[in-house]
Amino acid sequence: MRDALLALPRETLMPQAYARRSAPDEPPRWELLDWARTDDREELLGLLHSGESVSIQHEGEPILGRAAGARAGGAMTAMSSTMGMTADLLQRLDLRRGHRVLDIGTGAGVTAAVACFVSGHDGVVTLDIDRHVSEAAQARLMALGYRPAVVTGDGLASWPELGPYDRIFVSFAVPRVPPALVAQLAPGGRALLTLGTSSPSWPGLALITRAPTGVVEAELVAVEFGHRGGAGFDRLFLSATFRKRIATCEGGRTRRSRLEPPADTDRGMWLALDHLHPGLVRNFSADDLTIGAPRCGSWMRARRVGHRHWEVTAVGPRDIWAEIHDVADHWRAAGSPHSYRLQIDADGAQRVTSRCGALSWTLTDVSHTHTGAAGEPDPHSEKGASHAR
After folding, report:
1. How far is 206 from 289, CA to CA, in rounded Å?
2. CA–CA distance from 202 to each of 61, 83, 199, 266 (Å)?
3. pLDDT of 289-345, one tens digit each?
4. Model confidence over 195-217: pLDDT tens digits?
5. Cβ atoms < 10 Å from Cβ of 250
6. Residue pair 300/325 in contact by the 8 Å Cβ criterion
7. CA-closest candidate to residue 128, choices 170, 71, 76
8. Which of 108, 138, 164, 229 has CA atoms 20 to 30 A from the CA of 66?
9. What is the enclosing helix (H) or strand (E) of 351?
10. For residue 218, pLDDT beyond 90
11. How does residue 4 score in pLDDT terms, banded at 50, 70 and 90?
């Protein structure tokens, strides 16, 4: 799978891509680089092989035939996820020759190209909600000699016309497993998708299988990186104003604590926190443990001040430090799980439970808004982007 990705001529699938020309806290400005322009090639190749996600569409624009140059304002609406994360997920997907594959969230067509290479293009369907994305991907996949079925539609409704599928891959986060995808999973099949709340901080990877007998089993694994929410998905973020407020400790109250916060690698705990106390976003770029609740304005920052001593500064109605330790206690009592059983009932109910049953929560849909602190629009609103620390 990794060999297929490495051999993929990325400049053919992404002959144009956006380079950001503004700092994160400045009004966004981008430059659309174009492989057809000799002066752009070195920078474009660096972008495509940087290991970061690659922006390929601005404000829902047509992709084919567009002019290179500057763009300002708005947001990126389609991206190609980081190659490292894509490679890891495709390894888990375990594509085989002859598999019928449904790739949801076409983007630049990278996953579709790998699926065609491994499984044969006759059984591959790639689906995107944006017709401009679909049209561009189809043209560029054909340039590589691949002819999957490229369709435009709502991926959460699946594409039953050519199902059922042996493998289903979703390249954007959803709040719960879409029932239509489970229904289209063939006996012996496997599906992978990121399950998340409105926070981008602690994603979970859902692995769903259907046994040859037809029985569906699913697992939710806490992971470091996952896809971001797609079109219409609720996204929380810490705005520049909010982060500045935390940095200057405006109105903060400080106390000492002997409690040790969970390690970053205790991902099963952070995943549980995200669902049991939703609405939290971590600032991974901060030197100290910094978490905010944008909707109510609460935040906390914890820094070590000696052996087993922590200085905790907090503001707002939520006691985030207490919420963390409440979940951490329950998580340890449940055996410190890294993964959870995901139960998908015939009536549509979905519940996540630790193996011993001591820690659990129900998956629900989230509201489809795009607000962060103080109701500001999300400047990082990007379809199919990967969450990266």
Report:
1. 27
2. 31, 20, 7, 11
3. 999 999 999 999 999 998 889 999 999 999 999 999 999 999 999 999 999 999 999
4. 999 999 999 999 999 999 999 99
5. 10
6. no
7. 170
8. 229
9. strand 350-353
10. yes
11. confident
Q: Where in the chain are the domains?
A: 2-80, 240-333
Exposure string of 253-285, with b = 16+ CB inside 10 Å and e = fewer, is: eeeebeeebbeeebbbbbbbbbbebbbbbbbee
Neighbours of 357 (CB within 10 A): 9
Residue with tokens 């996953």: 111
- Burial profile 166-194: b = 16 or more Cβ within 10 angstroms, e = fewer: bbbbbbbbbbbbbbebbebbbeebbbbbb
**Neighbour tally for 145: CB within 10 Å:** 10
CB 206 within 8 A of CB 220: yes
Q: Rounded to an integer, what distance in angstroms lies between the CA atom of residue 305 and that of residue 288? A: 11
Residue with tokens 């922006």, as numbered in its chain: 55
Q: Would you state the structure tokens that stand for residue 278, as one six-digit string?
A: 């939703």
Q: Are strands 165-170 and 149-152 parallel, antiparallel or unpaired?
A: unpaired
* Residue listed under structure tokens 């986060």: 173
* CATH T-level fold of 240-333: TATA-Binding Protein (3.30.310)
Residue given tokens 């808004």 in the structure block? 369
Smallest CA-to-CA distance from 331 within 364, 372, 360 is with: 360
Question: Which DSSP string do the residues of 12-64 spell out, in sequence order?
Answer: HH-SEEEEE-S-TTSPPEEEEEETTSGGGHHHHHHHHTSSS-EEEEETT---T
Between helix 83-93 and helix 110-119 the angle, nearest 10°, is: 40
Q: Report percent pLDDT > 90 for the chain.
A: 80
